[in-house]
Design a protein that fits this description.
378 residues; 13 helices; eight-stranded mixed β-sheet; globular; alpha/beta
Length: 378
C-alpha cells in the first residue's frame, strides 16, 4: 500500500477513490486478530497444513523453485520423504496425484499444474500478479479447479472455514488470465525435476522461464566453487555462448545456508547470454530466476555429491523434456574422482552457522535440521 494512502487512513482524510486502501488495511488488521484468535483456540499449522496441500499449493500459477521446500512441513511434525520426488510427480502426472489424494479423504487438497504464467509464452509474459487479482484472484483459480473436481472442498483453512466456504461465489472474470482447463498455458507445471548422474537425488528448474532453444542443451562445464567467482567470470567476458556454468559449495551445508543464485543469472542475462548459457548449482533459485537455471542439485558438493566431482570442460547435457541432467563421463571415471575427493574446510567454524551446518540435511529433503544418527546428547 502506498505510504500516502496509509497516512490518509491514519489522518481520517480518505476519499471515496481511496476506499480500497481502507479495506486493505482493515483486512490486515482482521488477519492479525484472526491469528490471535486461532492461537487461543489451539488451531495450529498441523490443523490444515498437510503434505499434498503444501507440495501443490503453487502449481496452478507456476510459482518458482522455492515451492520445493518442505522445512515448514517437517517443522509442523508432518512426514517428509523426498520433496523432489513429490514435485516431479505433480508436474508430470497430475492425474496420478489426484487419484492418490482421493484415498486420504477430506484432509487433503489437490491442485494440479493447469494454470501458470509462462515466461516463454508471448501472451503470458504480460500477465502479472495484478492481472491475476483483477481476474478474480487465487479464489477464482481454486473455483476453476473445484468445478473440475480437482479440489477437496472440505479441507480446513487458516480462516477456520473450509475451502468450499471460502471460494463460494468466486468468479473467473478473465479467462485469458486464468485459463480454463481446456485452454491451459501448459499441460505440465511450471517446474521440472531433473535427475541423472549429476543429480541422483534431483534438481529443480523453472521450465516456464526457459527459452525453447535451451530446453535441450549440451555444453562444457565452467566450474566455480562460489557465487562471487562465477559472477566475476561472467562479467569479465570469460563465459561464452554454449557454456554451462557450474556453481557449487553453495548448498545447505556448503553455504552454509543455500544462498539464492539470482545475481549470476542476472549477470548472464545482462551479458546477452540468457538464451545460450545454462547455470547449474547446489544453491537455490526463486520465482525471479530466468533462463536455464537449474538449482537445488542434490546431493550437494559439500557432502561429496557428483556436482563436486565435475571438472572444467566436462560436457554436461540438459534435457528438460526428458527430465535429465547428466555429466558425460563414465561410471568408472566418476568413481575414480570420488575416491580422490576430500571434504573442504567449512567456511564457518563457530557460532550458530557452524551448528546449522552440522545439522542441516540435503536440499531434496527441504534442508531441514536433524540430529545426526548416533548422536549422544546430554
Amino acid at each position: 500500500m502506498p505510504m500516502r494512502a496509509v497516512q490518509q487512513i491514519m489522518l481520517g482524510t480518505v476519499t471515496a477513490k481511496e476506499n480500497q486502501a481502507v479495506q486493505t488495511l482493515s483486512a490486515i488488521k482482521k488477519a492479525g486478530y484472526d491469528g490471535i484468535e486461532l492461537n487461543g483456540f489451539m488451531i495450529r499449522p498441523t490443523s490444515f497444513m498437510v503434505r499434498m496441500m503444501t507440495k501443490m499449493a503453487g502449481m496452478p500459477v507456476g510459482r518458482g523453485g522455492n515451492l520445493d521446500w518442505a522445512g515448514l512441513v517437517k517443522a509442523a511434525g508432518l512426514s517428509v520423504v523426498s520433496v523432489h520426488e513429490d514435485l516431479g510427480t505433480i508436474q508430470r502426472e497430475p492425474q496420478t496425484v489426484i487419484e492418490e489424494a482421493k484415498k486420504f479423504g477430506t484432509k487433503y487438497v489437490v491442485i494440479t499444474g493447469m494454470y501458470r504464467f509462462d515466461y516463454s509464452d508471448e501472451t503470458a509474459v504480460r500477465k502479472l500478479a495484478e492481472d491475476l487479482n483483477e481476474a478474480g484472484g487465487v479464489y477464482a483459480v481454486m473455483k476453476e479447479l473445484a468445478d473440475a473436481g480437482l479440489l477437496n472442498l472440505g479441507c480446513l483453512t487458516v480462516s477456520g472455514k473450509t475451502i468450499g466456504e471460502c471460494i463460494e461465489g468466486a468468479v473467473n472474470r478473465d479467462p485469458q488470465v486464468i485459463r480454463p482447463l481446456d485452454n491451459p498455458y501448459s499441460a505440465t507445471g511450471g517446474l521440472a525435476v531433473l535427475k541423472g548422474n549429476l543429480a541422483p537425488d534431483g534438481s529443480v528448474v523453472k521450465r516456464s522461464a526457459v527459452v525453447e532453444e535451451m530446453m535441450v542443451h549440451e555444453g562444457p562445464a565452467r566450474v566455480f566453487d562460489c557465487e562471487e567467482d562465477a559472477i566475476e567470470a561472467i562479467k569479465g567476458g570469460k563465459i561464452v555462448a554454449g557454456d554451462v556454468v557450474v556453481i557449487r559449495y553453495e548448498g545447505p551445508k556448503g553455504g552454509p545456508g543455500m544462498r539464492e543464485m539470482l545475481n549470476p543469472t542476472s549477470a548472464i542475462a545482462g551479458m546477452g547470454l540468457g538464451s545460450s548459457v545454462a547455470l547449474i548449482t547446489d544453491g537455490r533459485f526463486s520465482g525471479a530466476s530466468r533462463g536455464a537455471s537449474i538449482g537445488h542439485v542434490s546431493p550437494e558438493a559439500a557432502v561429496g555429491g557428483p556436482i563436486a566431482l565435475v571438472e572444467e570442460g566436462d560436457m554436461i547435457r540438459i534435457d528438460i523434456p526428458q527430465m535429465k541432467l547428466e555429466v558425460k563421463i563414465s561410471d568408472e571415471e566418476m568413481e575414480a574422482r570420488r575416491t580422490k575427493w576430500q571434504p573442504r574446510q567449512p567456511k564457518v567454524t563457530g557460532g550458530y552457522l557452524s551448528r546449522y551446518r552440522e545439522l542441516v540435511t540435503s536440499g531434496n529433503r527441504g534442508a531441514i535440521l536433524e540430529i545426526p544418527k548416533g548422536f549422544q546428547g546430554k
